[in-house]
Amino acid sequence: MSVNRPDDKTLRICLAGDWMLGSDIPQAGVITGEIGAGPRIERVTFCTDSLGGWDTGLLTFLVKVLNYCSGDGIVADRNGLPGGVQRLLTLASAPPGMKGARREPARISVLEWFGGAALGFWRGLLEMTEFIGEAAVAFVRFITGRARFRRSDLFVTIQQCGAQALPIVSLISVLVGLILAFIGAIQLRLFGAQIYVASLVGIGMVRALAAIMTGIIMSGRTGASFAAQLGTMQVNEEIDALKTFGISPMEFLVLPRMIALFLMMPLLSLYADLMGVLGGFVIGVTMLDLNFTAYYNKTAESVSINDFLVGIFSAAVFGVLVALSGCMRGMQCGRSASAVGKATTSAVVTGIVSIVVAMAVITVICHVLNI
Known about the structure:
Layout: E1 2-7, E2 10-19, H1 28-36, E3 43-54, H2 56-71, E4 75-76, H3 83-93, H4 110-143, H5 151-161, H6 166-188, H7 196-235, H8 238-244, H9 249-286, H10 292-302, H11 305-331, H12 337-369
Parallel strand pairs: 2-3, 3-4
Antiparallel strand pairs: 1-2
Helix pairs in contact: 1-2, 4-9, 5-9, 6-7, 6-9, 7-9, 7-10, 7-11, 7-12, 9-11, 11-12
């Protein structure tokens, strides 16, 4: 590198050789010292006719020189630099908040917001109806023996939805039974009616709570898993590949998951009934001094076959709803990693809301039919 003065107010910097990181690159302080010495410099130019290879080492040197010139009011003429260096320097010197670099969020009116929300709800309703219709067609094809899917996938999904879900179902059901019995024991003990804790826990778990809690657990565990699996397949274009080969994704992917949850949810609900009653029995024995025989007899006397059938029916309905929610959100997933997370979250929310609404409808129907 050499520095000369074509005139009193101009400093010319000639760059020669290779300017690479790790080599002996001159320091920017040499230039700043030359600018400060002698007459006042008003303009700095560059000469790169003999410049060889360069990398960020040259850019770092030039940025320091240009920043010094800008701060001292000196004009730096970059025309003598290579085109690539000039473009990189322009990018490096661009302010982070450049006007127009970030789109400002558009302000919308309240009426426009409600209109957009209504249109979004209507589109979602249409998509949900279409998906449920396609699932119904796939189920009819399964009944008639024409559905195309791998039986091994069905058995694997049954194992994932059934046996592998027992630990979390056991824990939650026992705790719900404990809580329900504890709350009832506090009040019933005031009237000397401790024995009715068995009726409270038995009817509550068998008729509603076991099915609801199992459905919510499976929505957060299995429904989210379905959405993540199908969403990832959507991102990787595996679902598009199935369509290209003439294989229906509804039959190959959705149908086994829907059948698996439809079969496993009643069994899990039965298991949750047992664990919930066991949790209530623990409270009855430890807090209320009830013996096993009295608690068992009161539970058997209170719980009817109608309560049992309502719980089993509710669990089967919840299984279908959880499977449809998870698979629908997975099939509607976008083409990015963030879309998979959104689909998973939406699947859980949709599944839980569907369970609550379905339970309300079933309760009203049972009341009307006096079940």
